[in-house]
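User: Can you predict the 3D structure for this chain?
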Amino acid sequence: MVTSTTNSSQPSPVDVASTNSKSIAKIILANTMDSSVGFTGVAAAFAHSIINKGACGPLMLPNAESVKIISTQPLTPGDGLGRLARIHDKNIQIGMSICGPYAYDTDILTPEGQDIFRSRVVQKFKKPGEKPDVVIVGTNISRTPSRDQAVGLCSLAEQARSMETTVIMYVSGFEDVNYLKRLIAPVDTVHISRCTPDADDLMAFKIWAEDFGSLWMATPDEYMVSLPQNPDMNWKAEKFSSDDPTTRKMVRLYAENKTYEEIAALMGVNKSTVSRRLEKVRIQRRI
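Assistant: Here is the predicted structure, written as structure tokens:
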């Protein structure tokens, strides 16, 4: 259990771990302080990496064969989640909407949202043959969460444990990850942040794992996960070297054993520019 120190404006967290210590379920906290890092892309990338056993991303959950992504917004044919998944695999079920009729979205941290999540997700997955190996669900909270939001997050974690499967809870918008960990009591914590994509990529984000309970990553290093604009290409991942696309290209060429002179010629810059940028990356121990 991680103990956090919170300020007086934050409600005291509930110790859900002590009340659910016998549960089989595993919760992985995927946290980002930047609410502009969208759940849709991250969920699609996670599912793709898990199903492909880490072949196209840094995440892998041993023995996981099926993933279900829970959407709190209404879904339409050809929605963004399906396009970002780019995988025709029956084991990834994209977009089970729990949004109520005529509603824009469902706040699953409210009592009403909790009831919807319980009836449409928890109860559904208790039926024979319905439960996936991994469930991904996302929610946003304010930078200074109210007590109601804290209670809602604890309740969501408790419901997740009752499903007896691995649940990845994507939480965005709040900076105090230790406070979130005390509320949720995850076995693993994954940090996500924005990353400037390459010119030929549609989107990109950075990811690194803090804890390793059931989650597998090749190393604890930061990775960049990106989706090419080419619809025939799938998600890809590489060790994060820089947020600057030009510097990243230099790092890749350097990894191909190109000399500074060759890199400078290929990229139309002088040798000192290459040297300066690569030295900065080297100091940060990213090459």
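Strands lie at 26-32, 67-71, 92-97, 134-140, 166-172, 188-194, 201-209, 223-228, 236-239. Residues 245-283 form one domain.
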